[in-house]
Amino acid sequence: MLGQKVTPLGRAGIYIPGGKAAYPSTVFMNVLPAKIAGVPSIAITTPPGKDGKINPHVLVAAEMAGVEEVYKVGGVQAIAALAYGTESIRKVDKIVGPGNAFVARAKKWVFGDVAIDMIAGPSEVCIIADKTCNPRFAAADLLSQAEHDEDAAAICITTDKNIAKQIQEEVLKQLGSLERMQIAEESLHRHGRIVLAANLDEAFQLVNLLAPEHLQIITANPMEQIHSVQNAGAIFLGSYSPEVLGDYFAGPNHTLPTSGTAAFASPLGVYDFLKKSSIIQYSQPALLAAADHISTIADTEGLDAHSKAIMYRKEDALSEANRFREKQQKQK
Hints:
five-stranded parallel β-sheet; 45% helix
């Protein structure tokens, strides 16, 4: 018999960013998969605001999600507390949740002493647009990422020169109405791009090189083009599936691989809070049938104790069989 025993982690630590914005949605996105997985103990750490208090929306979200431990601590010290424990915070088995560059680096340093979900960088969106794209929608979606912080990346790849110009005009038009205009403007200056591709094939080649956190395909037939995507954290199809929908409501997790790591990483999910133990059970006949093969491999590797662990069992079985035959012969 071969199988797996799937077990939830014993304790998870969840980092909820603060500072420039409050993220009650991130509480749900990180806590609920852990709850569904069956993690019995969950702790949240989050930095206080300038008033020394935790954002009330974050606290309400934590209560709704059923988290009883919320610690008013942020930054690298919060990661250290979760990884190694303090007098008031018990260490965890895994740390998940996004944070700034310092938090991301701290998670990388403690990896190995605890598990982590990913090294999360600044938020990013890439939009593939053809001539059917609504420029107003695309501009709004680019700005929704740019307002996160100055290092966020908002990129549009289009096959139509007129659409490129219209999106650019819409971005400038909408930018002035944003409350976080200065952050969005700086983000666009640093990392905002509109790229003109020769065709959709070239556009998707660029996407797969970027491996973006969020990919929006705003084309005439987005479902037909999904097979062209090799690397993306989350894929949003059509004009009415904006990235913001995934941030708050649709269901698939908004904690996603960034900075090109979508080439090898996946969104946060229930599976991140589960561990698997292999199960192996052989009967005596099954082991005897494989004994010589196992012994040969062990001898080839020069590990004679491995070989003997098998051969002793084979010898014992043969002795047992001989005793049984002798007993039968005496009875006759």
